[in-house]
Design goal:
Length: 226
């Protein structure tokens, strides 16, 4: 029986899991969840995932939330020798990848969430200076991470790049990467965008996410004028 993924294509973390599963050749059964309608808040799903977040992986009565934990689990269980570049066995290389994953879940994605939450809550009508400043600060950190390697942890794509790419796809749609200020980050983003799995899985969902956020912000603006 294939693992079941509760997801929505607009969710950056869900797209991370879908891309990693695709690379590893893991077939996922998928169940669409609408986060705007809070479908993840049902008693059944809350029991499986008290955080009430998307995505959620369920396999043989085993439930795992948080995309970073999920992709590490999928790699450990399904990864083959040809996939070792995604998460090499070298302790220091793994530590660097882990740090970048923690940066995504602890710094980068929360700065996106600070935009998403008030937007979906009907309060945000446009990006504030502090929101833009926080995102630009994250771009600065990513630019520095890319100072010695082509990708965020190595000269090859790792799990860290795939995870951060989905977050960055939405952020770039809201606050475009300035090529003059962040040339390495812009090049990294372009390189990742050309990956076949990014074109097929990430791009449609990221466009949907950005469009949805901008549309809701505009609706919030119109409502505030009434």
């Amino acid at each position: 029986m294939s693992p079941l993924l509760y997801k929505t294509d607009g969710s950056p973390p869900a797209r991370t899991v879908m891309m990693v599963a695709d690379i590893l050749g893991v077939h996922l059964d998928k169940k669409e969840i609408n986060p705007v309608l809070r479908e993840q808040d049902t008693p059944e799903l809350t029991k499986k995932n008290p955080m009430r977040t998307i995505p959620l992986l369920e396999e043989d009565n085993f439930c795992l939330a948080d995309s970073h934990a999920i992709i590490l689990y999928l790699f450990e269980k399904y990864g083959k020798t040809k996939h070792q570049h995604l998460y090499p066995s070298d302790m220091r290389k793994r530590a660097t990848i882990n740090q970048r994953l923690f940066f995504d879940c602890g710094v980068l994605f929360p700065r996106l969430r600070s935009i998403m939450a008030p937007t979906y809550g009907g309060k945000l009508t446009g990006l504030s200076k502090s929101m833009i400043g926080n995102v630009e600060d994250a771009y600065r950190m990513l630019e520095t991470y890319l100072s010695e390697t082509l990708y965020l942890a190595e000269d090859v794509i790792t799990l860290a790049d795939i995870s951060i790419m989905t977050t960055m796809s939405t952020l770039n749609g809201l606050i475009p990467i300035n090529e003059k200020t962040y040339p390495k980050l812009k090049q990294w983003f372009n390189n990742m965008s050309q990956q076949e799995y990014c074109k097929r899985i990430n791009e449609p969902g990221s466009k949907e996410h950005v469009y949805g956020l901008k549309t809701i912000m505009e609706n919030n603006k119109q409502k505030s004028k009434l």
